[in-house]
Amino acid sequence: MTPDAETRARLAALHRKGAASAPATVADFDWSRRPRPPAWMPRALYAAAVAHLHLGEAMTRRACEALAAGAADPLVGACLAVQARDEGHHAAIYGRYLALLGAAPGAAPAPVVAETLAAAIDPARPLATLLAYNTLLESEALGIQAGFETWLPCPLFRAINGRIARDEARHVAFGRLVLPPAVAALDPAARRDLYHWLRGLWWSCAEAVLDGYRFPGMASGRIRRRWLDSRWARRHRALAAVGLAVEGANP
Ligand SMILES: [Fe+2]
Ligand SMILES: [Fe+2]
């Protein structure tokens, strides 16, 4: 990924902004406020959702560190290093919230998700890694956070997500600068392979999560399939937004 001159100028501005801004940290929140899981939702399921956000942040940090270390372009590497700094703090914040929730049995992330995220970090394939993390996972995490905002209004969690979202906006802006030209430079076959690889990652994780936890109202196969299709449609749109729209692919 070698950005052109105009993209480089915008990346440099984004890097200056990121390096100068203070990321969300554990110290930003009043931890005397207890988490308030909703009465209608099994506590283990609530904790599992937070545990997946925590895992996502920790793994994104690892991905950014790996990509920054191997970046061909020092400016891209510098942006990724700033993001790694942010994600490390985000992981610590979710970790603290998770600890306050208590160790609910069955709240650990699904092993398939942890394994898939680890396997998706490949510094030899920086574009694939970035699409998996910056586009697919970031979009999924924002969706989970938005769901929490709407359905699970814990005031402490709302404060955490609101603050973290400010950092995430910079990460999203980075992806929007570097990904579309890199995706556009691929030939159609490589684009199709990448799309189907990402699709496979997402579906294996989503099905493992549905299999591993008891979601209220998800007993029927038809409801489950509709839920998976609608969530994938959002991830498909996120990939399409960076140019990874594959003709004939079923969103
Ligand atoms: Fe984050
Ligand atoms: Fe992020």
Question: What would the keywords be for this entry?
Answer:
mainly alpha; binds fe (ii) ion; Ribonucleotide Reductase, subunit A; 251 residues
Strands, helices and their partners?
Elements lengths: L4 H16 L22 H28 L3 H28 L9 H9 L6 H26 L3 H30 L3 H25 L8 H21 L10
The structure holds fe (ii) ion (2 copies).
The site of one fe (ii) ion has 6 residues, from helix 3 and helix 6.
Sum this structure up briefly.
The chain contains eight helices and no strands. With 251 residues, the chain is mostly helical. The model has no long low-confidence stretch (mean pLDDT 90).
| Number of DSSP helical runs | 8
Task: Give the tally of structural domains.
Answer: 1
CATH fold-level name: Ribonucleotide Reductase, subunit A
What characteristic shape results from the CA principal axes? globular
By CATH, the superfamily comes out as Ribonucleotide Reductase, subunit A
If you compute it from the alpha carbons, what radius of gyration comes out, rounded to the nearest whole angstrom?
Answer: 18 Å
Helix percent reads over 70%
Query: Which structural class matches the secondary elements?
Result: mainly alpha
**What are the segments in which pLDDT stays under 50 over at least 5 consecutive residues?**
none
Query: Got a strand count?
Result: 0
Could you describe the largest sheet, including whether it forms a barrel?
A: none
